[in-house]
Specification:
The chain has 313 residues and is an alpha/beta fold. Helix content is 27%, strand content 26%. It folds into two domains: 198 residues, 3-Layer(aba) Sandwich (Rossmann fold); 105 residues, Formyl transferase, C-terminal domain (Methionyl-tRNA Fmet Formyltransferase, Chain A, domain 2, Roll), CATH 3.10.25.10. It is built from eight helices and 18 strands. It has a seven-stranded mixed sheet with strand order 5-2-1-6-7-9-10. The longest helix has 25 residues.
Length: 313
């Protein structure tokens, strides 16, 4: 079977790797354009790097729906199927209609819940203990196509790096199990219940800002969801502080305004929240490396009553 693959981040790379290992013919891999990193060094997507490592041909359209040359190239390839996983662009009907067996998507949630751009982060933000992966037949709507297969996974207490690893592995395995059923006509297509759908919006940098007026549990979820980017952050004495590891203490009553330091220990400090308290174990001060709370306090002389704020002073 001839499969064109479309995807960009680590989550997608695991599915591409599974297709390669399964021996499928992959004439073309499509991924997002390279981006500039530190000191303008170009950063390749995880999918592009994997494709290069295996000698696969790569295309990187800025906007696939307007790239007629690439669309014609896809038609010339005559793929039996297009597999999409976290590609980052919406496919036009002109592409969806090309493959004989259709386009399928490896989506990081249990549809119809958490359609959209950031389903794994949204599941963490909502404090869910369970999420999963859905293989769906693509159509012009946003993650609205018929479901073909699903798998549930335990994500309790995990950060986005760990959730990505769990769901990427589960999704890759499910993809390899599902493709033969699509090919031989035994796949069962289940319509989504649109009334039960929810949406996971695109994340922006400002989403990570907290003034600690929310619950400690919600802020802990933010820290885990935004662990890779943009990080959950606040300001202390006018300097940005990013938080990477913390524990919600929901059975403790705040004894000060949200954002104020309630307690300092040898290896942690505690911040009052709108409800509960947040015990912090790891953070990063602006211009510094990530460090343990103990090292941070030894260098910053953090005191009870100091306040983390939701805006730069």
């Amino acid at each position: 079977m001839k499969i064109v693959f479309m995807g960009t981040p680590d989550f997608a790379a695991r599915s591409l790797e599974a297709l390669i290992d399964a021996g499928y013919d992959i004439p073309l891999v499509i991924t997002q354009p390279d981006r500039k990193g530190h000191r303008n060094k170009m950063i390749l997507s995880a999918v592009k790097q994997l494709a290069i490592d295996h000698g696969l041909e790569v295309a990187q359209p800025h906007r696939i729906r307007k790239d007629e040359e690439l669309i014609e190239r896809l038609r010339a390839v005559e793929p039996d199927m297009i597999v999409v996983a976290a590609f980052g662009q919406i496919l036009p009907k002109s592409v969806l209609d090309i493959p004989r067996l259709g386009c399928i998507n490896v989506h990081g949630s249990l549809l119809p819940e958490l359609r959209g751009a950031s389903p794994m982060q949204a599941a963490i933000l909502q404090g869910r203990d369970e999420s999963g992966v859905t293989i769906m037949r693509m159509e012009e709507g946003l993650d609205t196509g018929d479901m073909i297969s699903r798998v549930s996974c335990d994500i309790s207490g995990k950060n986005i790096t760990e959730v990505t690893e769990i769901l990427a592995s589960a999704g890759a395995e499910l993809l390899i199990e599902t493709i033969p059923h699509i090919a031989d006509g035994t796949a069962v297509y289940e319509k989504q219940d649109d009334s039960a759908s929810t949406y996971a919006k695109m994340i922006s940098k400002k989403d990570g800002l907290t003034d600690f007026s929310g619950s400690a549990f919600d802020i802990e979820c933010m820290i885990r969801a935004y662990y890779e980017w943009p990080a959950c952050y606040s300001y202390l004495d006018g300097q940005q502080v990013k938080f990477y590891r913390a524990e919600a203490l929901m059975d403790e009553t705040p004894d000060g305004e949200p954002g104020t330091v309630s307690e300092t220990g040898k290896n942690h400090y505690t911040i009052n929240c709108g409800s509960g308290k947040l015990r912090v174990y790891e953070q990063q001060l602006q211009g510094k490396k990530r460090m343990s709370a103990g090292d941070f306090m030894r260098g910053h002389k953090l005191s009870i009553g100091d306040r983390f704020r939701g805006e730069e002073e």
